[in-house]
Design goal:
- The protein is mainly beta.
- The protein has 2 domains: 92 residues, Peptidoglycan hydrolase domains (Immunoglobulin-like, Sandwich), CATH 2.60.40; 181 residues, Glucose Permease (Domain IIA) (Distorted Sandwich), CATH 2.70.70.10.
- It has 2 helices and 21 strands.
- Keywords: Signal.
- This is Membrane protein-like metalloendopeptidase.
- One of its GO terms (molecular function) is metalloendopeptidase activity.
């Protein structure tokens, strides 16, 4: 096995043909790794035993690697598989300190579930894991996303969360606050993987954008799509609500790459200043 070492900056790779998510080489971020000449067949890429999205950019094959929040700072490796054999490519991950957030939840069972609640949560987890294991082979993946909701940026990805002073899992997505009933739009072309009503997530939709790029929409009031439905960018998924574990109406938006939760803000970097500015009004 051949091994190469790439030292990647945390700056975005320039995109000439396709608008890519912003690169940020930290836990919870995305790394762009060149993996071959696009004149050759598209390689298969694996990171931590999961397939990685590969796209064509500037006459090269580029792997978009989602980095888990619990990834160790320092070198990480991907495996590139081609007809000529396997190659290991290393890249560097820098540290990022995520701030803490303290929330007061009135429904105490949403913080300390009962035995019956735990059974439902376990059942929910199995359904969600099936949705997130989706892999659709397709030559091109649209990564030029629009914000799914026209609202106010209310909670960032990766926050260390405390509910009623109890430590819980880090915030796994991006929260956009909006009035109940505000339309939620597909950020890019996709297929509906599944919909459901879950204990913590409330009314939920999962979309498949191809090659393991999956997006999730939580706490909805209405769901207006069905599993298997093909969507175009801007099609309505449903409406903002406050179902599940919430403190008020908002959309909790998750994005997954190679079965890893990553920061959705990297997909709508040009829109973040506008959404955040509404906090000052």
């Amino acid at each position: 096995m051949i091994k190469r070492l790439l030292f990647l900056s945390i700056l975005p790779v320039c995109a000439s043909a396709t608008t890519l998510p912003e690169q940020l080489a930290v836990p919870g971020g995305i790394v762009h790794v060149p993996v071959g000449d696009s004149k050759t067949p598209m390689p298969q890429v694996f990171y931590q035993n999961h397939r990685v999205l590969v796209t064509q950019q500037d006459l090269k094959w580029l792997a978009l690697v989602g980095i888990p929040l619990d990834a160790k700072v320092g070198p990480q490796n991907i495996t590139v598989k081609t007809p000529k054999g396997d190659t290991s490519i290393s890249f560097q991950i820098s540290d990022k300190k995520y701030p803490a957030q303290y929330l007061k939840i009135k429904n105490k069972r949403m913080v300390n579930p009962s035995a019956a609640d735990e059974k439902r949560i376990s059942d929910d987890r199995a359904v969600i894991e099936r949705a997130l294991s989706t892999w659709t082979e397709q030559a091109t993946v649209d990564t030029d996303f629009i914000p799914p909701v026209d609202g106010r940026l209310s909670s960032l990805f990766g926050l260390k969360r405390f509910f009623n002073k109890q430590p819980k899992d880090p915030h796994s997505g991006l929260d956009i606050a909006a009035s109940a009933g505000t339309p939620i739009k597909a950020p890019a072309a996709a297929r509906v993987i599944d919909t459901g009503s879950f204990y913590y997530n409330g009314n939920t939709v999962f979309l498949d954008h191809g090659q393991g790029l999956i997006s999730g929409y939580f706490h909805m009031t209405e769901i207006d799509v069905k599993p298997g439905q093909q969507l175009k960018q801007g099609d309505i998924l449903g409406t903002v609500g406050k179902t599940g574990r919430v403190t008020g109406p908002h959309l909790h938006w998750n994005i997954y790459l190679n079965n890893t939760k990553i920061d959705p803000a990297l997909f709508i970097a040009r829109d973040i200043p506008r959404l955040d500015a509404r906090n000052n009004k």
